[in-house]
Amino acid sequence: RGKKSRPSSAAETPLAQHEAKEGTEPLASFKESGITNLLSVAKPFKNPDYKSNRRWKNLKQVVAQEEQASDWPVDFPTHWNIDAAPSLLPQKKYCDLTGLPAKYTDPKTNVRYHSAEVYQLVKTLQPGSEQQYLALRNASVVLK
């Protein structure tokens, strides 16, 4: 019912059928040519005269270029001052204890945790210590 049937044996595959007609074994032409390394074979689709115009810079050159940036106008774009639009994706949430992706949040303390094992540790935290974990991600609650 709408399912595609797969060949039940290797003899029913198109390659095997072609070889049966021709009377050759798989990859016979490859073995006859004596090629042992495909990297040494000329590739006609690549241009041997191609030279890239891209120039790679090391860290020292990048830092020197940024030091020269003081001569540039203030509104000149560099990789340090280009502002990006805010992301449309939701912010990723990480476990406050392990740093792994957090799937759960403790409703009592607002501490994010990764798994049931970590939740057992969250339940054993002393009162007030969860505020230190929340302060690390700037989510601490200040009671007045």
Mean pLDDT across all residues, rounded?
A: 77
Number of strands: 2
Detail the poorly predicted runs.
none
What proportion of the residues is helical, as a percent range? Answer: 25-40%
SSE pattern, N- to C-terminal: HHHEEHH
**Secondary-structure content class:** mainly alpha
For the largest beta sheet, what order do the strands appear in spatially? 1-2
Straight-line N-to-C gap:
69 Å
The portion of residues forming beta strands comes to: under 5%
Q: Largest sheet, if any?
A: 2 strands, antiparallel
Count of helical segments? 5
The gross shape turns out to be flat
Radius of gyration: 32 Å
Describe it for me?
This protein has a two-stranded antiparallel ribbon. Strand 1 (104-105) and strand 2 form a beta hairpin. The longest helix has 9 residues, at 14-22. It is mainly α. The radius of gyration is 32 Å and the shape is flat. 28% of the residues lie in helices and 3% in strands.
Structural topology:
Blueprint: H1 14-22, H2 28-33, H3 59-67, E1 104-105, E2 112-113, H4 116-123, H5 129-136
Antiparallel strand pairs: 1-2
What does this entry show, briefly?
The chain is mainly alpha-helical. It has 5 helices and 2 strands.
Descriptive tags:
144 residues, mainly alpha, two-stranded antiparallel sheet, 2 strands
